[in-house]
Each structure stands twice: as structure tokens, then as C-alpha cells.
Amino acid sequence: MTGAAVAVTQQVHVNQARNLATSRARAAGLPRSSVDRVALAASELATNLVKYAVDGLFAVAATPGGFDLLAADRGPGIRRVDECLRDGYSTTGTLGTGLGAVRRLADRFDVFSRVPQGTAVLARWHLTGADSALGVRLGAAEYTTPGETVSGDAWAVATGRGVTTLAVSDGLGHGPGAAEASAAALAHVSAAGMPDEVLGVMNDALARTRGATVAVAQIDHRRHVLRYSGVGNIAARLYAGGDTAGETLVSHPGIVGKRPRTSRSHRPAERTWSSECRLVLHTDGVSQRWSAGDWPGLLRHEPATVAGWLLGQHCRRRDDACVVVIAGGDAS
């Protein structure tokens, strides 16, 4: 799946955000009427970042069944979100269409805000006829190293026979070589085979690339089981029920594509999966120094909102970054 993000701190960035949103919306297959709504929403979200936010970040993401706009920042946050959803509301007293208009333009809308940390806003458009039978809800946010045109951090998902398999890959370095390595890995994401078997296939496929760190999570919906295997430093945290402490799922050291074929395969970790579970995966372009407990209520929001919040708050902004959040329940 594809995504991208741009920093939005000056008025000139508003046009960049709108152009990014409309080009990616067309590529995702949205009809012209929806692309027009995406353009309006992107302009409004980016303008708000310039006027009111600190370190604004605007992201787009195409996911199974949907196209997302995400606006995130590092402050000052919104004290009364319900008031901001009213047409004409503005913290400076000037007339503006505001978040209420964005909510009307989108098929799905969500916002999470904490004072003084910041805000994350999601606007989603459904893709007609797209596959939304994942059995989970999923959201993602990505960022490309400044100066590069492609990202080496990427993700992919596959579903079949009651199984959903998600992989996140971080190609070594950045630029085209890193993107090539991740593309080679993610081409082999499949609902068939255990996570360690998928990693074994990827290892062979990446032999002629610079290699990548990869995490593979697989949800068996019939058995209500999550299986996880990883190689390298992809961060993985599992949250069950209302737990905000979470459990870190451990990957094994190494680089996919550079592991000897004779190296022992590690049995995947297995955990119970339910509709209340949340799994967060991210590359090292996002700092691991965060805790969901610092943001009460965040994990009850849409997975895409959570991904946007984490990217906005903890993206290093000097390296590629990718965050994917998956939640139990029907895809939205």
C-alpha cells in the first residue's frame, strides 16, 4: 500500500498538500466527485495546520477499501473539539469552514486532541467495489526522507481463508535502493504460510538487494490467534482490551536478505486476538519513546487516527518512517 506525507508550516505548503492529496486520490481510484471533495478537505486541513499548529504534518494513505487524509501536529491541541466541528468556528474569531466542513466532505471523520500535545484528524473516503473483507480495521501513515522521492519504509496486507497477514518493511538506508528492497519483500506477503515461512521466502527474494528489516503479523480469525515473527528493529506493540501498557513483541536480530539459508527458523510468537485488540507496528523512523498511557482514549479511536498521531508526535523527520495500526473488528 502507498502513502506519503509533507511538512506543513507555511502557506506555500497548502498547495503542496492539496496536490499530493488529489494526485494520490486519483491513483487510488476515487471518482472525480470524491477527488474534488478530497481537494477541498486537504486545503482546509493544511490551512488549519499553517494557522494554528506547531510542526504540522499532512499525510495521505491508500488502504484496502479507503483513501485517507491525515493532519497531525505537536500543539497546542484543541480544548473543545465539539465546538471546532461547528461551521464558522475559529480560534481567531475569523470566519472559516473549519473541521465541520471536512467532516461533511468525508465518508468517515475522526479527531483526537490533547492539550498541549497536539491534534490528529482523519478524513476517509470509501473506495467503491474495493476489498474491505479483512475482518479488521487498519490505518497507516508514512513519511519520506526529505530530498528523496521514494520511501524505503512500506507495508502490505493480504487476506484469505480467514487469515489476515500484515507486513512492515524498512529497506536499509533510504532512497531507491531501500524502496527496491522493501518492494521485493512485500511482494511475498501472503495469507498462506506462517509468519516465519513468509520471512524465509522474503530472505531468498532479497538476496540481491541491500536487505531490510521486516515484521510479519498474522491474524487467524477462526482461532482468534495473533502470530508474529520479525527480523531486525521494527517495533511491535500489542494492546489487549483497555490495556494501555501493552506488550512488546520481540523480533530476532539480523537483516532479511542477508541471513544464511541454514539459519534456524524461529517459531512465531502467539497471542490471543479479539475485537478489543490493537497492534501497532512502526519502523525506526518513529521514536520508540512513547507510551499509550500518556494519551488516554487514543486507542479507542480509528487505527488511522492512531497512526497519524504517532507519526505527528514521534516521527524523527530526517529518515523514512512508517506506522501501521490494526484493530479487531470489521473493516470500516
TrEMBL record:
It comes from Prauserella shujinwangii. Residues 131-328 form the PPM-type phosphatase domain. The keyword Kinase applies. One of its GO terms (molecular function) is kinase activity. It holds the Pfam family SpoIIE. It comes from the Bacteria. This is Anti-sigma regulatory factor (Ser/Thr protein kinase). Keywords: Kinase, Transferase.
